[in-house]
Amino acid sequence: MLNYILKRFTKIVVRIILLLFILGLMLVSLFYINYKSRAKYAYPNEVFHVVDKNKSEIYLNDKNKKYLAEKNIWAIRLNRNGEVIESFNKPNIVKDKFEITDVARFTRYYLNDYPVFTYITGDGLIVFAYPKNSFDKLPFNFIDYKNFEFNLKLSVAFLLIFLILVYLMYKIDIRNIFKMLDPVQKSIGQIYEDDFDPLEEVGEVADLSKAINDANVKYRNLKDTQAKWIRGVSHDIRTPLAKIPWGLNEIKGEDNSEKISKIQGQVIKISNIIEDLNLTMSISSLSKDKFTMQDPVPIIRKLIVEKLNENPDREITFDNAIDHVKINMDRNLFYRMIENVLKNSLIYTDGIIKVSAFSCENKVQISISKFSF
Question: Which DSSP state fits 183?
Answer without folding.
Answer: H
